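Dear colleague,

Thank you for sharing your sequence with our group. We've completed the structure prediction you requested, and as agreed, I am returning the results in plain text so they can be pasted directly into your records. Please verify that the sequence below matches your submission; if there's any discrepancy, let me know and we will rerun it promptly.
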Amino acid sequence: MSNRLQGGASAGVTDFSLFVLLRNATTNQSMTGVAHGDITATYTRLGSTPTPITPVALSAVDDAHTDGGWFEVSNSSHPGLYRLDLPDAAIAEGADFVAVTIQASGAYAFHQVYPVSDASAHHLAKGDKRVVNVAGQWKLRIYRADDPATIWHESNIDHPGTPSSVVAV
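Please find the predicted structure tokens below.
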């Protein structure tokens, strides 16, 4: 689940859930008891028009993901904190960011922008990197994180000298 919250999401990931904190616009106190029918939810992908999310009641905080799912985490230990399940289309490939807005009567609007990283960039950051000699040419190879046998990127190294060993960069 680490690729689904802090710092954004990998493009194309499914079942993206996030936390929403609602505060009273007059008192700034946490708002508890806000039901799915009491909110208006929207997401906007960078370069696109706003898309409404139809809120759906979840029965527990650990329910399976349901597009538009809404549940109050705990009105005692986490007052004002809710879980929202985004539709998969919000995190689909093709946009660098998705903005999520939640509105409820008497609450400050919740606005949050999440970076949506290209799946290839995820593999670049997480994949194994090796310097190898192929037919006398030194190459940097970057392997896919989800398929370590598959080369994601390869480039020639035009540098005099010979590496002393194969290294992970």
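Summary note from our side: The radius of gyration is 22 Å.

Kind regards,
the structure core
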